[in-house]
Amino acid sequence: MTYLMKSRTGAKYNVVMGDARSILHVDMDAFFAAIEQRDHPELRGKPLLIGHDGPRGVVATASYEARSFGCHSAQPMAIARRLCTHAIVVSVRGKRYQEVSQQMFTILDAFSPLIEPLSIDEAFLDLTGTERLLGMAQEVARHLKDRIYTELRLTASIGLAPNKYLAKLASDMNKPDGITIIRQEDIDRVLPPLPITKLWGLGKATATKLEPHGVKTIGDLRRQPMSWMKQHLGADAERYFNLARGIDHRAVVPDRAAKSIGHEQTFEVDVRDPGEIRRVLFDQVDQVARRLRRQGLCAHGISLKIRFGDFETISRSLTLRDPTDITAELWEAARGLFDKWAQRFQPVRLIGMVAERLTKGEGQMGLFLDQNRERQRELDRVADRINARFGATTIH
Ligand code: TTP
Ligand code: MG
C-alpha cells in the first residue's frame, strides 16, 4: 500500500509498505493521426482517417475529431467514410511512426531502467523505489507528459497504479491528454461497474458467452464462485478471478530480457517489387541492430517472416556463425535469406525480421580480434551516436 504523507515543510513523499509497487502505463493519443497533424499543420483540428483508401482498406487509427463520428481503429475504411463524410484519408507512413516511437522510447529511458514496451506507442514503467531520485509518481507522470509534449509536440495519456493491469486500465480512462491514478483503496469502487471486456484478455466472444448468465460487469463476475468461473472460463478462471479484484502480480519485464527483438510491417496492398521489400527489410534490420546495441545484446540467429495476401505466412531462419549486434552482419544474413527466397518471389503483404536467441553481448568487452569486425563495430557506434543526437534514421 502507498500512503501520501506530508512533511512539516509541506513536501510530499511516499511511504511504501509491503510489496507495493508503483507502475506507470503510458499510451500516446491517436498516435499515427497525431503525428500527421503535427507534421502537416493544415490537418490540425480536422477529422482524419489513417489507412489505405481502397475497397479493402482498413482504418489504422482515427483522429479524435473523427472518433466523435464513430470512426475507430480496425474499421473498414468504407464504413468510416460513410460515418464521417468530410474526413480526410491519409496513407500510413510506417517508417515515420517508427522513428517517432523510437524518440518516445528514448524519452522514457530517462525515467526508469525498467521499461517494457507493449506496442509502437505504449509502455510500462516500474517506478517502484525511484521516488527519491525522481519525485513522487504523480510528479513523474506530469514531468514525463511535459517532456513528451516539449520534445515531440504530441500528447500522451498516463495511468498510475499498483500493478500493470490497473495502470493500463487507468491510462485509458481520461484519454486524450490525461493522467489517471488508481490507488489500492479505489479498486472496489472503480472496477465493479466496468464491463467484463475491460478484463485484460477477455474478448467479445467470451463476453457474449457469459451474458446469458447475467454476467456483464466485473462486479457480476466477482459474485460468481470459483467453481462457476472454472466451468465457464476454464484455464483462465484464476487469472480473471484475480484481475476482477485488481490483483496482478506480473512484473514489468524490460526489453533487455526479451528473447527476441523484431520488427514487421504490413502493407496496405501486396507489394510486387522485390526491391521495395528489400529496402523495408534493410530498415528493419537497422532498427533491430540498433536496439540490440542499445541493450547490450547479441543475436545467435535471425528469422524472416513473410506473409502473402491470402494470409499464408512463411518463415525462414538461420543460425549465425558468430553471435552479433553488427548491422552489416545482420543485414548480410537477412539479405541472404531474403534473396534465396526471392528467387521465386511472389507479392508480399507483410515482411518482418526477428533477431533471436539473444545473449548479453560479448562486443563491449572488445574480444574481437578480427579487424574488419572491429571497424564495423566502430562504424555502428558512430552511427548510433549521430542517430541518438539527430533522430532515428539520419544515417545508415
Ligand atoms: P492505439 O494506442 O491503440 O491507438 P491510438 O494511439 O491511435 O489512439 P488512443 O491510444 O488515443 O486510443 O494504437 C497505436 C497506433 O497503432 C495507432 O495510432 C495506429 C496503430 N494501430 C493499427 O494500425 N491498427 C489497429 O488496429 C490499432 C488498434 C492500432
Ligand atoms: Mg495510443
Give an overview in words:
With 396 residues, the chain is of the alpha+beta class. The protein contains 15 helices and 14 strands. Strand 12 (297-307) and strand 13 form a beta hairpin. Helix 4 (94-109) runs antiparallel to helix 6 (137-152), helix 11 (226-233) crosses helix 12 (237-243) and helix 13 runs antiparallel to helix 14 (327-342). It is globular, with a radius of gyration of 23 Å. The chain binds thymidine-5'-triphosphate (TTP) and magnesium ion (MG). Residues 27-32, 60-61, 73-74, 120-122, 175-176 line the site of thymidine-5'-triphosphate. Thymidine-5'-triphosphate binds next to strand 3, helix 1 and strand 5.
Which key features would you list for this structure?
binds magnesium ion; alpha+beta; disordered N terminus; 23% strand; binds thymidine-5'-triphosphate
